[in-house]
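User: Please fill in residues for this 305-position structure.
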C-alpha cells in the first residue's frame, strides 16, 4: 500500500512486489523459482542501473557473479493476476556508509525514477546493504550465511560459530513538527546548505515510546518542551535503513536554547512563510526540504489543515 500525506505519495512507499514470505521460508520452493524466468535487479554497487526508458534495469540470474549471494525480493505482477516472476538482487562486496547527501549522483538517479521503481529500489538497497555489512556474527564473530531467501542470516555453526540467526534491521526515527501560537519550529543541521530548514528529527532510543522520543529529542535540540504528540505518517528511508515516523506536537512556549553540537540554527516560521518556502518563492525566508523527504510532506500537511 502506498502511504500518502497531503494527497501525495511518499517516496520509497508503494512497492508492488509480493514478498511471499511463505516461499522465502521454504528453501525447496524458492529454489524452484530460481530459473530462466527469474529477474535480477541490476545494481552498480549500491547504485540503481537504468534502462533506455529510465526505468530500473533488470537482467537474469545468469548475470550474477558465480559466488554472489542472492536476495529474494518477491514476485512481480503476473499476467491475469497470477504469480509473476521471482525477483532477486545480488549482495555487493561492501555496503555504502556515506550519507545520502554526500552522493549527488544517487540523488539525481532517485529523482528520475518512478514512484514504484523508487520504492522497489529503496527496499532492495536496504536489504542488500544490510547483508554486505553483516557477514560476521555480532555474538561470536563467526561467518554468517544467507537464509530465508535473504531475509535472515545465520551464524555458521558447522564452522565453529554459535548458530545465532540475524535479521535485517530497521531503525525508527521520529521527525516532528512543533507548533506554538500558529508558528512552526524548524531547524538547520550542521553542514546543511545555507538557508535550508526542516523538521527536527532523532532516533528512538531503547525503552522509549514514540511520544517520549519526540519530547526528548525536541528538548535536547531546542530546549523546548512539547505535549500532545500525534502521529501523521511514516516513510522508509534506505540510507541505510531508517523508518521515519512523522509526528506533530505543541509547545508551551517559544523560548529556544539550541544544542550547537546538533544544529546550526532553530527558528519559528509563520504559515505564510512555510507556504512561500514550499512554493519556492524567491523571497521565501528558508529553503524547504526536498520533495523526496517526509519533512516536505509534513509541511504540506500542516499548511493544508
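Assistant: Residues filled in for all 305 positions:
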Amino acid at each position: 500500500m502506498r502511504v500518502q500525506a497531503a494527497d501525495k505519495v511518499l517516496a520509497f512507499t508503494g512497492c508492488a512486489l509480493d514478498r511471499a514470505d511463505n516461499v522465502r521460508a521454504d528453501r525447496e520452493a524458492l529454489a524452484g523459482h530460481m530459473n530462466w524466468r527469474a529477474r535480477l535487479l541490476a545494481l552498480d554497487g549500491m547504485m540503481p542501473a537504468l534502462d533506455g526508458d529510465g526505468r530500473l534495469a533488470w537482467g537474469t540470474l545468469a548475470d550474477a557473479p558465480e559466488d554472489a549471494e542472492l536476495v529474494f525480493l518477491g514476485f512481480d505482477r503476473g499476467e491475469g493476476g497470477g504469480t509473476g516472476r521471482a525477483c532477486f538482487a545480488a549482495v555487493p562486496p561492501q555496503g555504502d556508509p556515506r550519507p545520502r547527501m554526500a552522493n549527488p549522483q544517487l540523488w539525481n538517479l532517485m529523482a528520475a525514477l518512478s514512484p514504484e521503481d523508487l520504492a522497489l529500489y529503496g527496499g532492495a538497497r536496504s536489504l542488500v546493504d544490510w547483508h554486505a555489512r553483516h557477514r560476521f556474527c555480532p555474538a561470536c564473530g563467526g561467518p554468517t550465511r544467507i537464509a530465508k531467501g535473504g531475509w535472515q542470516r545465520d551464524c555458521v555453526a558447522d564452522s565453529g560459530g554459535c548458530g545465532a540467526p540475524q535479521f535485517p534491521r530497521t531503525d525508527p526515527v521520529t521527525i516532528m513538527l512543533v507548533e506554538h501560537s500558529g508558528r512552526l519550529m524548524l531547524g538547520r543541521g550542521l553542514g546543511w546548505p545555507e538557508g535550508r530548514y526542516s523538521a527536527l528529527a532523532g532516533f528512538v532510543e531503547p525503552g522509549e515510546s514514540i511520544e517520549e522520543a519526540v519530547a526528548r529529542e525536541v528538548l535536547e535540540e531546542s530546549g523546548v518542551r512539547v505535549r500532545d504528540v500525534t502521529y501523521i505518517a511514516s516513510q522508509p528511508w534506505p540510507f541505510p535503513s531508517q523508518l521515519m515516523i512523522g509526528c506533530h506536537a505543541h509547545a508551551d512556549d517559544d523560548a529556544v536554547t539550541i544544542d550547537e553540537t546538533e544544529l546550526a540554527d532553530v527558528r519559528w516560521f509563520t504559515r505564510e512563510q512555510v507556504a512561500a518556502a514550499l512554493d519556492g518563492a524567491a523571497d521565501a525566508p528558508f529553503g524547504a526540504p526536498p520533495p523526496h523527504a517526509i519533512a516536505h510532506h509534513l509541511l504540506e500537511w500542516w499548511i493544508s489543515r
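For context: The chain has seven helices and 17 strands.
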